[in-house]
Design brief:
Number of strands: 2
Number of domains: 2
Order of helices and strands: HEEH
Largest sheet: 2 strands, antiparallel
Strand content: 5-15%
Helix content: 55-70%
Strand order of the largest sheet: 1-2
Radius of gyration: 17 Å
Number of helices: 2
Structural class: mainly alpha
Distance between the termini: 22 Å
Length: 71
């Protein structure tokens, strides 16, 4: 039962951290406007795909999880 409790606490902290990142993401002006993010605008159509931002966030999250998981 202790393992399940630790897992739930860890999962809750991770979810809270992700929520905090979503709250702060509007305050980072360059996030979502990196070179490599696709933006296609036509008259009645807009397509936005943040490739570079996704890659950068993936690397950062992977490094954080690697440091946390290294015991």
């Amino acid at each position: 039962m202790q393992d399940i409790g630790r897992f739930l606490i860890t999962a809750g902290l991770i979810v809270a951290a992700i929520g905090g990142l979503f709250l702060l993401s509007g305050k980072v002006p360059w996030l979502g406007k990196l070179p490599g993010d696709l933006l296609i605008q036509k008259r009645n159509f807009t397509f936005y795909f943040p490739i570079a931002t996704s890659i950068l966030l993936s690397i950062i999250i992977s490094l954080i999880l690697w440091f946390v998981g290294r015991r």
